[in-house]
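My current task is to audit a protein record that another person submitted. I need someone to confirm that the token line plausibly describes how this chain folds. Take the sequence as given and treat only the tokens as open to question. This is what I was given:
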Amino acid sequence: MRADNSATARPSIAVTTPAPSAAPATAPALSASSGLSGPTAATGTTLRGTLQAALGVAAFSLTFPATAWGLEGFGPWSLVAVRSVLAALIAGGCLLALRVPLPARRHWAGLAVVAAGVVLGFPLLTTLALQTSTTAHAAVVVGLLPLTTALFSALRVGTRPSRTFWTAALAGAAAVVAFTVQQSGGALTPADLYLFGALLVCAAGYTEGGRLARVMPGWQVIGWALALCLPLTVPAAAVALSYEPVHLTWHGMTGLLWVAAGSQFLGLVVWYRGMAAIGIPKASQLQLAQPLLTLVWSVLLLGEHLTVAAPLTATAVLVCIAVTQRARG
């Protein structure tokens, strides 16, 4: 949080100062750090944005193992509702402590999309899927998220990545699909319907959040989205906890705290900041590494077993990431 708080002022000033007179010229420059400041400044901003997006991916890679831990102590509906309430309390406390004013009315529709996709839809659908699916299987299916996000970005934000970018992105997605089929033995499970639905709603939330992060600090984007859900998540948590048994275990509480503070808030803070700095398509391609990171955590934390295909897929994915980061997007 200290890094996020100290950095949030910078993009906010860069956006609001020139907005009235030069918005068309400066808005696109946010993703490339504006060539007006010179190559060194542009490179520094790009590296910083890439690092922030990568930190977000690292936080997200722990989500599925942490969810599996959380399901040891909570029911699926309780886990999703309680994690959202806890994350909203953290975000709301930051908003109140810093006396952040309410977003402009024109931003509330976008925040509602972020709330529906990232705060509610993705956690609920993936948690339901993990009741019958392994974290490894879920991770590789959700590995298609970067390509889905890039498609949503092209439709919603009007980005037009280069042909090289799309070729590398499709190659990375193909590697993830091949890995998924190999891991599951070629058979899809009912949980995949939840996972594919999660892909769509999360890509929409990422795209809208990345767009909003260009005009307000990233932590405020997810903070207000979480606060927007409180009228739904508080009663949902009360009802779910009354129906689903709770077993307070170390794994259960650790998993709950991580998906609430790490995945639901802190991870999204740096993720949205990274997307605002380097652009939605390029940031989304960093998530190609997320399934492989999740597989590593699945082995270390859950005792799941990897096949020989994992390092091969990791190499292919990393090559695709390198190409997309160099391609003009």
